[in-house]
Amino acid sequence: MAIQLNRREKLIVWIAGILIGIFVLCEWALFPYLDAHKRWGRQVAAKKVTLAEMQALKTEYSKFKQVSDQSRKWLKKRDKHFSLFTFLNIAADKVKIKKNLTYMKPSTIERRGNPYKIDVVEMKFSKITLKQLAEYLYTVETSGNQVVIKRATLSTPAKKERYLDVTMLMETIG
Question: What pTM was computed for the model?
Fold first, then answer.
């Protein structure tokens, strides 16, 4: 039982068939491809951001490693019997401000997971000049012993405007 269609109806059936074929082709092939393409584009953009972050972290890590390696070299060069307390005392004597040294309080900080301990000395100088302070700090900082000034408090004693009272917290890796 064949249906007899005229020419116009055949044309409409062909056009409908082609449109259905195009729709099926788009739904099963083109749209999934375009969705996947967009998803890949987003993933590539995210990976580029991640890569840029990783490169920045690598650069930062390299800088830290370089500083760490340099510090290890300096620590190996330092005398095995180095004492921060003794070093600071000798530096004060060298700059001729030992007589102005009011007190020195040594202590040690040990942190879990860190193989190094931190030696700390709090010290106070009374009635020293700015020039003496600068000379002392220069002596300590340029010694190559990795001594760091963590905190310094300066004040002027009553009626002695040319002089300073200085309290400092010095530290180094022991």
Answer: 0.60
Crossing angle (nearest 10°) for helices 130-141 and 84-94: 140
Q: Which amino acid type is present at position 107?
A: S
With contact defined as beta carbons under 8 Å apart, do 139 and 86 qualify? no
129-133 long-range contacts, CB within 8 A, separation 24+:
129/162, 129/163, 129/164, 130/164, 132/95, 132/96, 132/97, 132/100, 133/164, 133/166
The whole-angstrom separation of Cα 32 and Cα 28 is 7
Residue 169 Cα distances to 84, 103, 123, 134, 143, angstroms: 11, 12, 7, 15, 17
Query: What HEC string does the chain produce?
Result: CCCCCCHHHHHHHHHHHHHHHHHHHHHHHHHHHHHHHHHHHHHHHHHHHHHHHHHHHHHHHHHHHHHHHHHHHHHHHCCCCCCHHHHHHHHHHHCCCHHHEEEEEEEEEECCCCCCEEEEEEEEEEEECHHHHHHHHHHHHCCCCCCEEEEEEEECCCCCCCCEEEEEEEEEEC
What does the pLDDT look like over 79-118, one tens digit per residue? 778 888 888 888 898 989 889 889 899 888 887 777 778 8
